[in-house]
């Protein structure tokens, strides 16, 4: 059965998730909290706007909304369905210079996220129930009858149907921000990453689960990636998480990232050795006849096969397979040795703002083997003595220069990540974090 399934997989590998996220109930509460001032601003603009010229009041007793205050704004999860938005707005209404009444506008709306034909996620309102009633005053009022309790002609001024049509705009998460999730982000000048939603999110008690597929572009062209041996699914937390968001990245994601960097040539490095041709001639006699003058020795390392990342409990390692051309000459490089270099190194992961910072930390294992020589046979022990210290120091240093800008995580515009805790598990990395709305500048 497994062989049969493996034969069927290639047709679907192009649509296989390799990372994703869970927006938790805590995250929804935070989005509601930061949306409340925004909602009040939008409602104040819509409800207190002066009437259009053709709707000018016939008499000065026309109702006028003089204050709008959002008293309650909550966003809760409805498992298997979506989200419920509940808003209560206190309105101050004057019908004459000396008469002011308070009304309460309540809105209950069901929202969910769909995927449109263009492949973008959209926030959709599936149901919306507005009610408008007068707040209890000294007069006895029937609170149960919406729109009619005040005896005022307020419902003509408040277009509750229009509010329902645009209720999703009261959230500080309009569809423009959802679209920003799938924007391409730069890794290096020639390499970009893009996270594409594979389907509409799923809703569970743990939160809103979204599966993403990563694509990498090199010089504007999407590159084929290594086939993931195991389809990745978002690991759900066993209990409710205090974090707003839990991001997860598969082992395949990291191998794909390094493969894209390799494809772009970013992992090819060149560095100067502390040796010269004269010092080498003391150990390798044929160097003297090949290089009569003393020249600095240069190493040019290129990848000879795709890198591979392995995730284990609390440990991430990258395996790099390089071929180093060792030569001399400042203007015209002349190689005299070709050495295969296999490096196994620990990866260190951290998060800054919305970027994952990956760095090559401790080298756990490094092997040198002679591939070709113009100066006769060279023993492995001598190769290591001469070149291992420089390779051990320079290869991680130069790769870290490439990686130092970090890799953008899936995120939506105007929000950054705080209180980040990274845990590395077998086959995947979990990144629980909190959302933080960035302060507006300018």
From TrEMBL:
Region span, Disordered: 132-151
GO molecular function terms noted in the UniProt entry: lipid binding
Domain Lipid-binding serum glycoprotein C-terminal: residue ranges: 239-433
PANTHER family noted in UniProt: BPI FOLD-CONTAINING FAMILY B MEMBER 4 (PTHR46019:SF4), BPI FOLD-CONTAINING FAMILY B MEMBER 4-RELATED (PTHR46019)
Name recorded for this polypeptide: TENP protein
């Amino acid at each position: 059965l497994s062989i049969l399934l493996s034969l069927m997989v290639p047709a679907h590998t192009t649509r296989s998730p390799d990372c994703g996220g869970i927006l938790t109930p805590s995250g929804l509460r935070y989005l509601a909290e930061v949306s409340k001032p925004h909602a009040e601003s939008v409602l104040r603009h819509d409800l207190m706007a002066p009437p259009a010229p053709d709707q000018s009041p016939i008499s000065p007793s026309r109702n006028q909304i003089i204050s709008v205050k959002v008293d309650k704004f909550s966003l809760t999860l409805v498992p298997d369905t979506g989200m419920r938005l509940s808003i209560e707005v206190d309105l101050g209404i004057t019908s004459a210079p000396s008469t002011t009444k308070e009304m309460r506008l309540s809105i209950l709306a069901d929202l969910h996220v769909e995927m449109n034909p263009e492949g973008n996620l959209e926030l959709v309102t599936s149901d919306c129930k507005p009610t408008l009633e007068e707040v209890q005053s000294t007069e006895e009022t029937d609170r149960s009858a919406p729109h009619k309790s005040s005896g005022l002609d307020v419902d003509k001024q408040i277009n509750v149907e229009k509010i329902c049509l645009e209720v999703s705009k009261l959230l500080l998460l309009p569809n423009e921000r959802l679209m920003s999730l799938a924007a391409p982000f730069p890794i290096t000048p020639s390499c970009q990453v893009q996270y594409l939603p594979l389907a509409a999110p799923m809703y569970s008690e743990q939160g809103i689960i979204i599966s993403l597929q990563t694509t990498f572009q090199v010089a504007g062209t999407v590159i084929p990636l290594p086939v993931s041996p195991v389809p990745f699914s978002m690991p759900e937390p066993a209990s409710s998480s205090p974090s707003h968001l839990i991001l997860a990245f598969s082992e395949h994601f990291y191998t794909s990232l390094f493969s894209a960097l390799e494809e772009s040539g970013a992992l090819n490095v060149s560095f100067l050795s502390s040796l010269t041709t004269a010092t080498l001639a003391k150990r390798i006699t044929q160097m003297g006849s090949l290089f009569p003058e003393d020249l600095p020795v240069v190493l040019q390392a290129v990848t000879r096969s795709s890198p591979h990342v392995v995730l284990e409990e609390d440990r991430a390692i990258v395996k790099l397979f390089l071929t180093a051309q060792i030569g001399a000459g400042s203007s015209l490089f002349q190689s005299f040795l070709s050495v295969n270099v296999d490096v196994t190194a620990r990866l260190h992961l951290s998060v800054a703002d919305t970027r994952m910072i990956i760095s090559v930390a401790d080298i756990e294992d490094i092997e040198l083997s002679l591939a070709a020589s113009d100066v006769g046979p060279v023993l492995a022990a001598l190769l290591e003595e001469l070149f291992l210290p420089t390779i051990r120091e320079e290869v991680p240093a130069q790769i870290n220069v490439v990686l130092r800008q970090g890799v953008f995580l899936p995120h939506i515009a105007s929000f950054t990540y705080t209180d980040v805790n990274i845990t590395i598990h077998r086959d995947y990395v979990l990144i629980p974090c909190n959302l933080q709305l960035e302060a507006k500048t300018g």
